[in-house]
Write a structure and sequence with these properties.
It is a single chain. By secondary structure, this protein is mostly helical. It is built from 28 helices and seven strands. The strands form two sheets. It has a four-stranded parallel beta sheet with strand order 2-1-3-4. Strands 5-6-7 form a three-stranded parallel beta sheet, with helices on one face.
């Protein structure tokens, strides 16, 4: 029987000395983890975990799904995969050597031992390849950590080669790397084997001790963030429920110091790996605004660990709440949520500019975001008796001539397909999305409660929403702030896709179209395939470089439409992208996207690119 020899070529004092050294290493590691758990409220995060959360988290971590979405994530996947196999192998060796052998149980023998050696050498090569590819992409601390990992991997192979040279057996050829090196390096390293072994062990111990104090801590914290975060993005949780609140004394809204962050936002800060994908994908950063999501997360994290950090107001107001930073993060950190949370505090303290104040006043006085009297709202839209759906048109489409044309076309289409629909007329107000994104939480909940009372009065059970921004609040946020919410909410895109699939609607052909995914449709509601069920039937349809959940914001989100669109720089970037792929027509599915793209094309003098709302392509 061929078995694995433990502590080969080492004197008897080595094992007890190694375990003695592990005691302070373990203490340092535990203290580091205690700091992380205490300062980032990880106990509360752990208590909130359910079995289905962990299943989701393990699946995301093991597959490295978000990591490998971009080519530069492949080296990390290799390093992760190699580390995972080597760690499992080390655990099996520990289990056999320190526990099972006392009960005369041997796991690694004959074929199982041969297979084990083959897997360990293969994993070691993958580990080294990943580390080598990552090395030039890392900053100073990262480079030092990678060099440490490289030394552990290389010294491990050198030790294996020396052992095979001195005490080879039938399993040696399966350790193919060490076997190939054994005759070359074995003779020269045999005398220094113990020193090599200790350098390998001490480097590994040092890495373990340093792990909670370094960027490597994400290897432990990312499982929690990957488990608890949903695929569809969410706006930060509400700090209070207006229907339940009794005493406003001591109520915390937003944050001044990062220590005031709720636990469900604190714990994610510890999972940042400094990769910078959030900043690379941030449209505000790309057009030159003073916002780097990476620096925001690191600043808040370092502040919780005792450093000084000031989150400037101009940074907070630069965010368009598009969620690009969140969907690009491999560890499911959501930088934009910290900015939205901070806005709540700024609004509470009155630190807003004139345009922001005008938006709030418009909503308070007119009940819509456009400072237009409600009288006559939607009098141009008729209602069917006993409707299958009520339609929520939204402020933008209710008063705009283009919006009226688009909504009129949509209603004509679905009625032709046999769907009965009714509007709310003058009783439709704002859904509250703009003021919530601005940070006025109380006013948002007032709108939510008032609209819910309207729905109950009119017996609304099914609601079609024309605007993706409204869709997000009705479908994903109203249920959190309104008691007994029981309305089925769908996007007009979902209904059009279903009717088209059933053959109840036809399609008009236009030349070389492309589609601009609204952020709220694709990222916050995960509706990516629905519009494409229609659009892929158009001749010459092509995707832009950034599409689906990787879309690029038009610039109107986060209430920016009312206070900071500037020269439509984001929309202009999008128009350029559409032209780069040879599109002749740009299709949108959001009233704000339509307005921003239209302004951008006019500002750029673009006359060879058509602009359509998706409803206009059906018949």
């Amino acid at each position: 029987m061929v078995t694995r020899e433990s502590f080969a070529l080492l004197p008897p004092h080595v094992p007890p000395l190694m375990y003695a050294i592990l005691v302070p290493i373990t203490i340092i590691f535990i203290y580091g983890m205690y700091r992380i758990v205490a300062r980032f409220d990880f106990l509360k995060a752990l208590k909130s975990l359910k079995p289905h959360h962990l299943v989701r988290g393990f699946g995301r971590v093991i597959t490295q799904r978000r990591v490998i979405e971009k080519p530069k994530g492949i080296p990390h996947f290799l390093l992760f995969f190699g580390t995972l196999i080597l760690a499992l192998g080390t655990f099996i060796v520990f289990l056999e050597t320190d526990i099972l052998k006392h009960f005369s149980v041997i796991i690694l023998r004959d074929n199982s031992y041969f297979t084990f050696e083959l897997l360990m050498d293969s994993a070691g090569l993958i580990f080294l390849l990943g580390a080598l590819l990552l090395l030039p992409t890392r900053e100073r601390e990262g480079k030092l950590l990678i060099l440490g990992l490289l030394y552990i991997g290389l010294s491990g192979f050198l030790m294996e080669a020396t052992r095979i040279y001195a005490r080879g057996n039938e399993a040696s050829p399966y350790s193919f790397v060490g076997y190939a090196l054994s005759k070359t390096v074995g003779p020269s390293l045999l005398g220094a084997y113990e020193a090599l072994w200790w350098s390998h062990a001490l480097m590994a111990f040092a890495m373990i001790a340093y792990l909670p104090y370094s960027n490597l801590v994400h290897t432990l914290t990312s499982l929690i963030t990957s488990s608890l975060e949903e695929d569809c993005l969410q706006f930060p949780r509400e700090p209070f429920l207006l229907q339940e609140i009794e005493d406003i004394e001591g109520l915390t809204v937003g944050f001044e110091s990062p220590k005031e962050l709720p636990w469900y936002e604190k714990y994610r800060l510890a999972a940042c790996v400094k990769c910078g994908r959030c900043t690379d994908s941030c449209p505000s950063n790309l057009i030159g605004r003073p916002l780097s999501p990476k620096e925001v997360v690191l600043g808040l994290r370092n502040s919780l660990m005792g450093s000084e950090y000031e989150l400037k107001d101009e940074t907070v107001w630069s965010c368009v709440a598009c969620g690009a930073c969140s969907t690009s993060c491999p560890n499911y950190v959501s930088p934009f949520e910290y900015l939205m949370e901070r806005r709540r505090k700024l609004v509470l303290d009155g630190r807003i500019d004139k345009k922001m104040g005008e938006l709030i006043n418009s909503l308070r006085r007119y009940r819509n975001s456009l400072s237009v009297p409600q009288r006559g709202r939607l009098n141009w839209l008729s209602s069917d008796e006993d409707p299958d759906y009520y339609i929520w048109v939204g402020c933008q489409y209710s008063f705009d001539p283009v919006g009226k044309r688009i909504v009129g076309k949509f209603v004509e289409l679905i009625r032709k397909a046999g769907v009965r629909v009714a509007s709310f007329g003058e009783m439709e107000t704002c859904c509250g999305e703009p003021v919530r994104r601005l940070g006025e939480e109380g006013m948002f909940q007032e709108f939510a409660i008032a609209n819910w009372e309207l729905f109950k009065e009119m017996g609304v059970r099914k609601l079609i929403v024309m605007c993706p921004h409204g869709l997000t609040v009705f479908k994903r946020e109203y249920p959190r702030v309104v008691k007994d919410w029981n309305v089925e909410v769908i996007s007009h895109i979902e209904l059009l896709a279903r009717l088209f699939r059933e053959g109840k609607l036809g399609l008009k052909q236009i030349e070389n179209p492309t589609f601009h995914d609204p952020c709220n449709l694709s990222r916050f509601n995960c509706l990516v395939e629905e519009p494409r069920l229609i659009l892929r039937n158009l001749r010459g349809y092509r995707e832009m470089r950034r599409s689906g959940r990787s879309t690029f914001c038009c610039g109107a989100g986060g209430a920016n439409y009312w206070y900071q669109t500037g020269e439509s720089l984001m929309a202009k970037e999008r128009v350029k992208e559409a032209r780069e792929v040879g599109a002749k027509n740009l299709v949108v599915a959001c009233p704000f996207c339509y307005a921003m793209m239209n302004d951008a094309m006019k500002g750029m003098g673009v006359e060879d690119l058509g602009l359509f709302e998706i409803s206009e392509l059906l018949e």
